[in-house]
Design goal:
It is built from no helices and ten strands. By secondary structure, it is mostly beta strands.
Length: 114
């Protein structure tokens, strides 16, 4: 059974950092580009970052460029999202997704206090 499990969320002060992880199982991880998305209360889910199958290519939403870094370790079937210089507007539930599939994780809450 395909599964994605996010971890690493929490409460952090503005300007701080967090590193999210997403562990995949039940499918051939290295065959898929992977993405991070987020959903803030009362808002639509939005794109954060995406990585190619081997992690050699990444792209980011404009609001995250220079602050967030997405990466993956195919040997560990895991993707990461390093988030620096966090802002209160980054508060959201963060999800990972195997792109071009319906595989979503359940999300991890990130709360940034001012």
């Amino acid at each position: 059974q395909e599964q994605l499990v996010e971890s690493g969320g929490g409460l952090v002060q503005a300007g701080g950092s967090l590193r999210l992880s997403c562990a995949a199982s039940g499918f051939i991880f290295g065959r898929y580009a992977m993405g991070w998305f987020r959903q803030a209360p009362g808002k639509e889910r939005e794109f954060v970052a995406a990585m190619s199958r081997n992690g050699g290519s990444t792209n980011y939403a404009d609001a995250m460029k220079g602050r967030f870094t997405a990466s993956r370790d195919n040997a560990k079937n895991t993707v990461y999202l390093q988030m620096n210089s966090l802002k209160p507007e980054d508060t959201a539930v963060y999800y990972c997704k195997a792109l071009d599939t319906g595989y979503w994780g359940r999300g991890t809450q990130v709360t940034v206090s001012s």
